[in-house]
Amino acid sequence: MTPRTAAFPKESDDTGAFVRQDSTFRDRVTADGSSGLPAVAGRYHLYVSLACPWAHRAVIVRRLKGLEDAIGLTVVDPIRDDETGWRFAEERPDPLNGWTFLKEAYEATDPGFDGRVSVPVLWDTVTGRIVNNESADVIEMLATEFDEVAGDPDLDLYPAALRDDIDALNARVYETVNNGVYRAGFAPSQEAYEDAVMPLFATLDELDVRLTRSRFLFGDRQTLADWRLFTTLVRFDAVYHGHFKCNLRKISEYPALSGYLRDLYQTPGVAQTVDMDHIKRHYYVTHTSINPTQIVPLGPLQDLHAPHGREAPGA
After folding, report:
1. Is residue 36 a contact partner of residue 91, using CB atoms and an 8 Å limit?
2. pLDDT in tens, 212-233
3. What's the DSSP call for residue 205?
């Protein structure tokens, strides 16, 4: 069988396998302002897609920390074009600069930018440039640097004593799960597909066992590790299982992972950040090399409000 053309030629290795681009903008906002970017209310703005799992993390952490009044947010249209990238819908225009496409933020920051425009984007309204477009950095900053202006400054999603362990687990989950579903979905060959799918399910199997022993990934408290995993899990059965052919098992077939997913979903404020219409239309309509008919499936039926039974796992 002839391997198909890579979905993202600029983000492919010599075999055509998907290799995600590195984020370009990695400046830091700090509580004390030592970076030159102080964590003050009203200065920063988040551009996100509700369809994108990487941006969804930022939406959730902003909500949990109570930063809605301190950091503005604009949602782009879920249908992304390969030529122009993310665009602003007529009903949700860019409130700051009147842009039509998010790439205009990239060009304003670096006129020579020629990579793929990604979300989330943390924008600085004072300097008129992108601070950071790496989701891992953005959620860490939201979780740790904005306590002075947060509605819930006591919520610690990145406790100092656990950071090394959280970072180690995040690295594993990123490689095999968060990015693993994309490596499977965009695989140009059977070999590349299997090289992604087998580690993906090996990690999911391990996480299911881990979650029989504790309510969350690190005991009885939520951390950034949980929310980085959640945004993949909540899309899995509706998108990745079928669209990306990650179909050895559904999340609903994992006893611990499925309850854990519902537990996180039922955290106050989180369900309102999950827009399954945006999610499904983005993947099934945008990725025409995978789904040329652009038909958006109606299923699966999921009841994420069902009792999760996670109050005392392992008890």
Report:
1. no
2. 999 999 999 999 999 999 999 9
3. H
The H-or-E segment that residue 206 falls in is helix 190-210
Query: 267 and 180, same structural domain?
Result: yes
Q: What distance in Å separates the CA atoms of residue 59 and residue 312, rounded to the nearest whole number?
A: 28
Burial of 305 (0-12, 13-18, 19+ CB in 10 A): exposed
Q: Which residue numbers are catalytic?
A: 52, 182
Q: Is 52 within the bounds of a domain?
A: yes
Predicted confidence (pLDDT) per residue in 145-169, tens digit: 999 999 999 999 999 999 999 999 9
Residue at 299 is within a domain = no
What torsion, rounded to 10 degrees, do the Cα atoms 101, 67, 259, 280 define?
Answer: -10
Contact 123, 131 (CB under 8 A): yes
Check which CATH number belongs to the domain holding 142 and give it: 3.40.30.10
